[in-house]
Amino acid sequence: MEHNILVIGGNGLVGKTIIRILKSRNPQVSVFVGGRKGGKTENDLKIDVTDPRTFQVISDKRISLIILSVNDQSDNILKFAIANGIDYLDITKPTPDLVKAYDVAKESTIKSRIVFSSGWMGGIVNGLVKTLSETADIQEVKLFVYYSVKDLAGESSAHFMAENVAKPFIRYKNNRRVPIKHFLDAEKFDFSFGIGKREAYNFDVPDLYILNQIEKIPSVSVKMTYNSKLITWLLGAFQKIKLFNILSLKERKMIFGSSGNGDQSVFEIMVKTSSDNKKLSLQSTKGQAELTAFSAVLHTEELLRNFHENKIYFSHQLHQPLSLLEKLKAYETINIQSGS
């Protein structure tokens, strides 16, 4: 079967990385690049997610899977994929946009595989949670994130933080919705891979919604720390004095928009069950973009190689958890540790 894959946002950092990894592992697949400006080759397609009139080329090229790595706030690509029976994989959505898109999909007749993969680092956290225990037995999940300003990072995460840092979001405690804000409620955590003890603060990622609302885990929280202890402290101080409320969007983007030349990315999953506590630590030595892109490629390969019926998925639902874990362990820039 011919597989024509379109990466919309394929000229961005994560999009380019997806294409590099996908082609290296699957040379038989035809990969097209979608962007607002098009390009010089026949595989470069001019597609603007805000203008559905540019989507005809998707049908013309007989695209069988769309990977969306650019923000599509109006869900135009999602609606096009659903209407035309095209497989769809989205790695871009912050929590409010994910909930909205999920509602759009649920109200539609689905004739393809519609996959939401907007959890932390391409949606792999939720699959890894299942390697630690059956979700029915899990009472609480805590996710701790180490974020380095020296890491290569795309614009989307910085823009999300700039737009939402002053707004409350939801974590879950015994199935109660608890409104909180970024960079408050410090909790000391001892990170692996030589990072050590750090203050970690509230942080919004879609896994909060997915683990509670989809996987029915009663208590879920996410906290993050920066590589710089000073930056971490300053962001908490700014939130406490409500400085983010008076800064312009442009000024907030300047705060969150730094991007370095590369650094490690680390996250740690803490799972509490009725009988014990378990921990899984993951390090991507090449940073966030590499890990997110590789996760997207794993989801793509699963769609290409194995039967999955036409319906809506969160990306971790495509995988057998232990199989996902082994594939991640086999990747040369990923290190995983487990313990209690």
TrEMBL record:
Q: Please give the superkingdom of this protein's source.
A: Bacteria
**InterPro entries referenced in this protein's UniProt entry, alphabetically:** NAD(P)-bd_dom_sf (IPR036291)
| Gene3D superfamilies (alphabetical) | Dihydrodipicolinate Reductase, domain 2 (3.30.360.10), NAD(P)-binding Rossmann-like Domain (3.40.50.720)
Can you say what this protein is called? Answer: Saccharopine dehydrogenase
Lineage of the native species? Bacteria, Pseudomonadati, Bacteroidota, Flavobacteriia, Flavobacteriales
